[in-house]
Amino acid sequence: MKIVAPKPFTIEAGKRAVLLLHGFTGNTNDVKRLGRYLSDRSYTVHAPLYKGHGSDPSTLIQTNPKEWWDSVIEGYDTLRNLGYEEIAVAGVSLGGIFSLKLGAERPTKAIVAMSAPAIAKNTDSLQNRVIDYTINYKKLSGTFDETTDNRSTIAKAVKMPSLEYLQGLINDTSAKLDNIQAPVHILRGLQDDEYYCDSADLIYSSVKSRIKSVKTFINSGHILTLGQERELVFEEVYRFFEGLKWQE
């Protein structure tokens, strides 16, 4: 079976612009429904695809967090080049910490950080994400062999050397959270790993924004934009952006 690779997407629908950022080992499908929800309500949206993501595992493991961050900046510049001066950002998981990094380093209208990590995570946990990604890719492409494709064999084949760098990026961003003054809305799922719930508290206490808030979704796990409460998540993001004073 041939897998259709996800792509970046842009929907121009209004004067207010939002950059949408997906997670590690995810792709733009993570935020596509949110993008459509916002565009239906007159927001222009753009979602970049991080380098190496949405493709085969061998391509993913040859990339690194700096290249993924470059994809974020390219996405931000895409909206700038289209003429948008006020750009909000919303990201899930790795996209959440990238959203905060963007808010600390670039002019940003507002930030929605969903399931964002703010404490360096064990590289074994991150490596397991790569293994899961590989297994899922093989099953979707029809190349999975139950006799040879066990986790230990796959782990050796897709070892990703840049995961320690990713830990450093998370730590560096957390150290800069007090540079953020733009409005921040932090979303988390109660069914997610406690690590992400603790990260939400750290983000809230660290940012210097006058407008900041935390919302917990009781029946949601990690990828809030794909979970059973996703419509509530979309509405929450929309209401937060609607509460801002935009230049019209």
Walk me through what this model shows.
This protein has 248 residues and is of the alpha/beta class. Helix content is 44%, strand content 15%. Helix 4 links the parallel strand 4 and strand 5. Helix 1 crosses helix 9. The mean pLDDT is 93. One of its GO terms (cellular component) is membrane.
Q: Can you tag this structure with a few keywords?
A:
248 residues; alpha/beta
Coarse structural class: alpha/beta
**Low-pLDDT stretches:** none
Report the sheet-strand fraction. 5-15%
Tell me about the largest β-sheet: 7 strands, mixed
Helix content: 40-55%
Report how far the terminal alpha carbons are from each other: 47 Å
Number of strands: 7
Strand-and-helix sequence, N→C?
EEHEHHEHEHHHEHEH
Q: Indicate the multimeric state.
A: single chain
Radius of gyration: 18 Å
Q: What's the layout of helices and strands?
A:
Blueprint: E1 9-11, E2 16-21, H1 29-39, E3 43-47, H2 57-60, H3 65-81, E4 87-92, H4 94-105, E5 111-114, H5 123-141, H6 151-157, H7 163-175, E6 184-189, H8 194-206, E7 212-217, H9 230-242
Parallel strand pairs: 2-3, 2-4, 4-5, 5-6, 6-7
Antiparallel strand pairs: 1-3
Brief rundown of the structure:
The chain has nine helices and seven strands; from the N terminus they run ββαβααβαβαααβαβα. The protein has 248 residues and is an alpha/beta fold.
